[in-house]
Design a protein that fits this description.
With 183 residues, the protein is an all-alpha fold. The protein has helices at 4-12, 16-38, 41-58, 68-87, 96-107, 113-117, 120-132, 135-146, 151-158, 162-180.
Amino acid sequence: MKDTQQLIQGILSKDKSAFDTLFKSYYGKLVFIANSILYDKQLSEEVVQDVFVKLWETAPNLTIETSLGAYLAKMTHNRCIDYLRANERRIKTVSIEDREIQAKLHELGNLSFEDELFSDSLEIALKQTMERLPPQCKQIFILNRFDGYSPKEISEQLHISVSTVKTQITRALQKLRDALSPK
């Protein structure tokens, strides 16, 4: 990956290879951010693509005063809010388990919002915890929380009961909560 300063200079000069590098480096993280606001994977991907289009269109006039990751996270956040306002949609109610995990993530390191989103240690902790989940539990959790499938859709896809799906999601959330709680 290019040096961050070179990457920013490439973006400002509308260098396509810099945009490709930027896209590959941040697309997944930005979709995750958008999906945590919109709760719709396809819509989240569209919003992130809009962010990159806007970045391309306005590149020569950009002033990036924070880190590149923080700048993109803020653009994505703002675009999601704009979408919700324009479509008069309400943000879905977040479950108690999700709120607890979000609170734990926020507590870790007492980082700023943007720094927290791209914190390497947090990302590593989450990945390690996800890898330790039993295979079926992990698959169900990813389908539900990251891919946006409902428990009913997952049960049909995996040929298991809806209650099994819900139990596996609850177990995954508990393991994440336990792993992220202070010892």
